[in-house]
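Shift notes (night). Ran D-arabinono-1,4-lactone oxidase C-terminal domain-containing protein while the centrifuge was going.
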Amino acid sequence: MKLVTPAKGTIEISKEKDPELFYLARVGLGGLGVVSEVTLQCVERQELVEHTFISNMKDIKKNHKKLLSENKHVKYLHIPYTDAVVVVTCNPVSKWKGPPKYKPKYTTDEALQHVRDLYKESLEKYRIAAAKSSDDNEPDINELSFTELRDKLLALDPLSKDHVVKINRAEAEFWRKSEGYRVGWSDEILGFDCGGQQWVSENCFPAGTLAKPSLKDLEFIEKLKQLIEKEEIPAPAPIEQRWTARSQSSMSPASSSAEDDIFSWVGIIMYLPTMDARQRKEITEEFFHYRHLTQVELWDKYSAYEHWAKIEVPKDKDELAALKERLRRRFPVDAYNKARKELDPNKILSNNMLEKLFPLSETN
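Came back to this:
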C-alpha cells in the first residue's frame, strides 16, 4: 500500500515492511494518510447460486452450525413480531451439477399480492384512497417492487406499532412465496435491495468459530426481538444478520488474532419513507430511542461494536466520555494516535469524528 502522508510524504507499507502501521492503515479512518496505490489479492469472478427460503428460530438453532460451515455466504433476515427468518445462502455454481433445476411455486405477482392488498386496505383505513386515486402522478401499485410498496405502506403511519406489525407479517408472506434459486455473477447476487432512505445501526460481535459457533449470535437476536416487543418499538423488517471471518486490521470491529474466529454483523433499521420534515424528525427520534435501548441492553453484554460508518458522535459530554472509554477497551487507540502524530502532526487529515473519539491530547 502506498500512503501519502502530510509529514512523511509517500510511504510504502506492507505486512512484511512495517506490519503494525500496515494493519492500522487498512482501517485507517482517513486519519493516517491518503491511499494512492494498493495491491489487492483478487479471485476470479464467480457465478453464484443464491438460495432463499423461509425458516424459524427453532429450526435455525438446529441447523445454524451446518448453514455457516457449508455455505460460502449466508445471511438471515429476521422479521420483528414474527417467527419468520429468511435465509439467503450463496455458493459458486457447481462445475459438475450446474445450476439447480427449480420451478418457483409462485409468480412475482402472486408473491406481491398480499402486500398490494394490505396497501389498498391501509389506504382506505387512513382515508386517503380518494386523494391517491385522483393523483395522476401516483404510480400503479402493480408496477411497484416489494421495497417500494413497503415504503408506501410505512409512509401512511411509520410509528404505529400495530401498522408496522401488519407490514412485517405481509413481508413474511412475501418471502414465503419468493422461495427459490437465482443464478448470477457475484456482483449481481451479493447486492441487496434494502429500500429507500433509512437510518441503520450495524454492530459486529464475536460468534465463536465455524467449528464451534458460540450461538451468541442467535441469542443476541432473540434478546433484541424480546426488547422490541417489550418496548413496543415500531421496528420494521428486516433485522439483517450476516457473518465474516476475522480481520487482521487492528481498527476493524472484527479484528482478532485468532485465525478461526468468526464475527456476526447485525443491522437494525428504520425507513424514512417521505420527505415530510416533521415525520422524518419523529422517525429519527424513534430510531435513536431504538438504537439507545439496544446499546444499553445488548452491546456490552455481547462485546458489540458499531460499524465505523454508522457511529454517531454523542453531543452529551458524559455519553461521549463513555463511548471513548468503550472504544479504548476494544481498539489500540494509543497505537493509532501515535501513528497519527507521526504521519499527520498538524491534523491536516483530521475531522470532527476523529477529534471527538480519538483526541490526540489524551494520548500518552
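The mean pLDDT is 92. The two ends are 28 Å apart (CA to CA).
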